[in-house]
Design a protein that fits this description.
Radius of gyration of chain A: 25 Å
Shape of chain B: flat
Oligomer: heterodimer
Structural class of chain B: mainly alpha
Order of helices and strands of chain B: HHHH
Number of strands of chain A: 6
Helix content of chain A: 55-70%
Distance between the termini of chain B: 64 Å
Distance between the termini of chain A: 71 Å
Number of strands of chain B: 0
Strand content of chain A: 5-15%
Number of domains of chain A: 3
Number of helices of chain B: 4
Order of helices and strands of chain A: HHHHHHHHHHHEHHEHEHEHEEH
Number of helices of chain A: 17
Structural class of chain A: alpha/beta
Radius of gyration of chain B: 19 Å
Largest sheet of chain A: 6 strands, parallel
Chain lengths: 459, 99
């Protein structure tokens, strides 16, 4: 690598870091993303001027085909499908890292320069992590897209078999590192890693996908960093590590918000060891209200906090909901959104869905910002959310929700819950909030109810 | 252990700290664009793919390189574009009554 390209790569790495830094505010985020893209452009252009490259045919074909597919996906994807999209992109990133590592071996095998031992170690890691990222992401995307069942697929000795595959890859890798002429080990390593990616994601249920997507995000970064060690290229190491760190942080946030350990998410299957339905035996009554009652209460409130759940977005009801918020604002009512970290299928998903419906970001508040405000709020309107507002999380030790951070909707003066039925949420825990004296249950489809509310409020 | 490797390990360890420092400041509001944007950055493997595809040794390594260029470019272009599309939707309120 000559001095000019080394400096250009350094500039690219700096631009990536500055870009990520600007992502910390919605005012500067778009510029941050542009800086990242600029960094990438610089890195690519400088690489293309490298004298090692003597044939541009395959490069041009690859750039044109990949660019067209990428641009098409980015324009067409719906915001509700963003988790699948990011999942697939993670997978492609992992695949690219593994492919480059493999190509580097082919170069060596064809009489290329000798490689140091750390490069061999990194090469095996890149193949393992990259391939697991690819197949794991494809399965996660298929589950999110509904192509395959989102329910956990469980079979006996699942964990043990997965562990065995991982050990097998590491053992084969060690043999290969000791004797890189054992070329046939590499395809076997890739194959076993591919199977491992599939079998580690199939036992994970749809509701846990935010954790899986975040984790695979981290893997795709780690694979890039490993490839950086193979090639001795620091810009790959820096960028890959940044992404690896980002994925780990998001994984941790998601796990905390769901009240589960990472090991529990990866190995347990959703609610597999919890006996659901045990708490729903006793008969309790709820107070039913109509949309007319709800409209009356809303009109006479001064402050409203809306708690949206993912079902709302699936029904594409966020647009009409924002219309309602606009009406409330026009009436001088302070209406805001409270967003639980897991209110979506990936970190921050609900914010994007509401932003798409033109909800201004300064009324989209995260749990820590708004939780103390509920006690001074007239109406908390819960739409398609359940577990994240279940007070049992605070005190009921035997509940799977116990310890999970929840939104304090029960502190509001009136709680309005719009729901199809009294069915418990994912965790299988009955929600006592519904039986509270100050809770108004409005049964029905969320979108239909909000549409009705909009009509009533307009009068 | 050679000097090059030692430098790479330095870079790696420092990048971990920079990563945690920078990323933990991103608010949950922007976590989805953060994921898609950082994802595009991890497409930096494209740099390695370009060299693998262009070395002209022929044979399998070039084909692998070309496939790598395709998937890495999907990752880079798709990632940056979709992030830009999402961030374009985040707008500040102008109608909300002053409190």
């Amino acid at each position: 690598m000559n001095v000019l390209s080394a400096i250009a790569y350094l500039v690219a790495a700096v631009l990536f870091i500055m870009g990520l830094k600007l992502l910390s505010s919605p005012k500067t985020a778009r510029r941050g993303n542009m800086l990242g893209a600029l960094g990438m452009l610089i890195a690519v252009v400088v690489t293309l001027t490298d004298q090692v490259i003597i044939d541009f045919t395959y490069i041009v074909v690859g750039l044109v085909v990949g660019g067209a597919i990428g641009a098409f996906l980015a324009r067409k994807v719906q915001m509700t499908s963003m988790p699948q999209m990011v999942g697939l992109l993670n997978g492609f990133g992992g695949a690219a890292s593994a492919l480059v590592a493999y190509a580097e071996y082919m170069r060596f095998a064809a009489g290329g320069p000798d490689m140091a031992i750390h490069a061999w170690i990194a090469l095996i890691l890149s193949l393992l992590i990259g391939t697991v990222t690819l197949t794991g992401s494809v399965i996660a995307a298929a589950k999110l897209q509904g192509v395959m069942t989102s329910a956990p697929i469980l079979y006996p000795f699942q964990k043990q078999i997965n562990a065995l595959m991982l050990v097998a890859v590491l053992v084969m890798g060690s043999f290969f590192i000791m004797d890189p002429s054992l070329w046939y080990l590499l395809p076997i390593i890739v194959f076993v890693s591919a199977v491992l990616g599939v079998t580690s994601v199939i036992p994970i249920g749809g509701a846990d996908m935010p954790v899986v997507i975040s984790l695979l995000n981290s893997y795709s970064g780690m694979a890039a960093a490993a490839t950086g060690f193979v090639l001795g290229n620091n810009v790959l190491i820096v960028s890959g590590t940044l992404v690896g760190a980002s994925g780990i942080i998001l994984t941790d946030i998601m796990c905390k918000a769901m009240n589960r350990s990472l090991a529990n998410v990866l190995f347990a299957g959703v609610g597999a060891e919890y006996e659901a339905g045990a708490t729903t035996s006793e008969q309790r009554t709820v107070v039913r209200y109509t949309a007319d009652d709800a409209a009356f209460i809303l009109e006479n409130a001064q402050s409203v906090i809306i708690v949206p759940g993912y079902g709302l977005a699936v029904a594409q009801a966020q647009h009409v909901l924002q219309e309602m918020v606009n009406i409330l604002h026009a009436k001088g009512i302070d209406a805001r959104y409270a967003i639980h970290p897991v209110a979506g299928r990936m970190p921050g998903h609900m914010n994007v869905l509401l932003a798409e419906a033109n909800a201004p970001y300064d009324i989209l508040l995260e749990m820590d910002q708004i939780n103390d405000d509920f006690k001074n709020t007239d109406v908390a309107l819960v739409l398609g959310a359940n577990d994240v507002v279940n007070p049992a999380a605070r005190y009921k030790k035997e509940s799977p929700l116990y310890g999970m951070p929840i939104l304090n909707v029960d502190h509001a003066r009136t709680v309005m819950v719009c729901k199809r039925s009294l069915n418990p949420g994912f965790a299988g825990e009955d929600n006592e909030l519904f039986y509270d004296k100050k809770t108004m249950m409005v049964f029905g489809d969320a979108k239909a109810t909000i549409t009705k509310l909009v009509q009533l409020l307009k009068k | 252990m050679d000097v090059m490797l030692m430098m790479s390990i330095y870079v790696f360890v420092l990048a971990i700290f920079v990563g945690f420092e920078v990323i933990s400041k991103v608010p949950p509001l922007l976590h989805t664009p953060l994921m898609s944007g950082s994802n595009a950055i991890s497409g930096i493997t494209l740099v390695g793919s370009l060299i693998a595809a262009g070395e002209g040794h022929g044979g399998i390594s070039v084909i692998l390189g070309m496939i790598a260029v395709i998937v890495a470019t999907i990752n880079v272009i798709g990632g940056f574009m979709v992030t830009d599309r999402m961030l374009g939707m985040f707008k500040k309120d102008t109608t909300k009554p002053a409190k």
